[in-house]
Design brief:
alpha+beta; 5-stranded mixed β-sheet; 4-stranded antiparallel β-sheet
């Protein structure tokens, strides 16, 4: 890797770290005051190539790239969308935790953790939107918000004249901070149709 590329990578990681730190501090462990809190799109990792979002492959090491490739292989051709929570202190850990759901048979009714022998208390919303052509992007993430124990990702499916016919998978990882014990409602909201297209309830158990 060249010095210029390394400098750009370090700068990008530093910017993301600052955004995460600020968001986690603002979000608190369990904000139940009824206010809607927008999660910055700049902290979202996605495979859709959308401008302003982060490419997960840029910020993970070779081992985590292997987990990403395994996830892609496992879900190849799977059109059904999905949403769940994982725990991980960074995007690499979140990807590994995601593989525990898609590859390791972990249930999605509670947050999955990476099998790395470490304790992780930062949570991520993982959304699998499905498969479609890759160009132009089939799903665009418009916003992510949290209101109490409801976490909602809003997406748009742009209508275009032509989209490539390849089979491309659309994932998103959203850092949602340190969540307290309780039941959380995860929602995937279709902006075009103005309705919730997917909903899941996830329980976070109290710390023993």
């Amino acid at each position: 890797m060249s010095r210029k590329a390394l400098a750009l990578l370090v700068t990008g990681v530093g910017t993301l770290a600052a955004l995460w730190f600020g968001w986690f501090n603002r979000s608190g462990a369990d904000p139940d005051d009824g206010q809607v809190r927008q999660i910055p799109l700049a902290t979202v990792f996605s495979t859709n190539g959308q401008e302003g979002l982060q490419d997960p492959t840029t910020f993970v090491d070779e081992k985590c790239v292997w987990f990403l490739n395994q996830i892609y292989f496992k879900t190849h051709g799977m059109g059904a969308s999905n949403a769940f929570l994982v725990s991980g202190d960074d995007i690499g850990a979140a990807v590994r935790a995601t593989s525990e759901v898609f590859l390791g048979g972990r249930p999605a009714n509670r947050p999955a953790a990476p099998d790395d022998g470490k304790d992780h208390d930062v949570h991520w919303l993982v959304v699998y939107l499905g498969v479609d052509g890759s160009n132009p992007p089939a799903w665009l993430i418009k916003s992510v918000e949290r209101q109490g124990r409801r976490i909602r990702l809003c997406y748009e499916f742009p209508k275009v004249v032509y989209r490539t016919k390849d089979i491309y998978q659309y994932f998103a990882w959203v850092p949602v901070g340190k969540l307290g014990a309780g039941i959380y409602d995860l929602e995937v909201f279709d902006v075009n149709k103005s309705h919730v297209s997917l909903q899941r309830r996830v329980e976070i158990a109290p710390i023993q």
